[in-house]
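Entry 14. Ran structure prediction on the chain below.
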Amino acid sequence: MMWHQRDILATMGIDIWIPNHSVRVQQTQPSSLWRDQALPEVMVELPQNQIEVPAFSPPDIREIDSTLTQFVETEKESRHQNTQVVSIEPLEAVPQAAIQIEAFELQAISSASCLIVVDASTLSESQVELWLNIQRAIPTEYHELKWPFPLAEMQDGRGASSYVQGFIDGMGVDKDLIALGEIPHLQQADLHQLASLQEMLDQPILKKRLWQFMQKSLNTRMTDE
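Output, structure tokens:
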């Protein structure tokens, strides 16, 4: 009977046949590591009387609205202070009263080597004649300055010195400056002050000194060239 069953199984393609009653089944437990094992859940049950649920209170809408309003006002004020332009009113200049000085007149002759200046404010006839003779002695150009200046805004006496200095500097570049007597409001370091016209009239020898000085200045200029 068994062989007959084997032949049938062989015909069906089954080479080995084992009866059901002879099969020993060994059941094995799959090995598991400690890391693959889940920790047991610990359930702690608290008594219902120990659980306190905080009571829910609705927010105070008025308090929130007041806080937001205060915050917005503070921000607006802060931005306004940061962007506010500080306007400083300009200081008003206190006008100073013009200094009044006596009128004066300067006359000058300019040659190639020197510039001769005289105070012509109060010249007598004899002084004017002597001054004209000096002008005829050598080829010169005539210049004059009168104070006060014609413009009303330039009649302050504080500007007289600058006015005179500009008059001299405009003609005396690279020239010897000779003053016949004192010249009002002239502050010049390299100034050669000789005798006045009246002193030359009183002491004719002083005319010679002026002529010698003019010749020396001319000769020095020719030597330098």
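The radius of gyration is 62 Å. Will compare against last week's run tomorrow.
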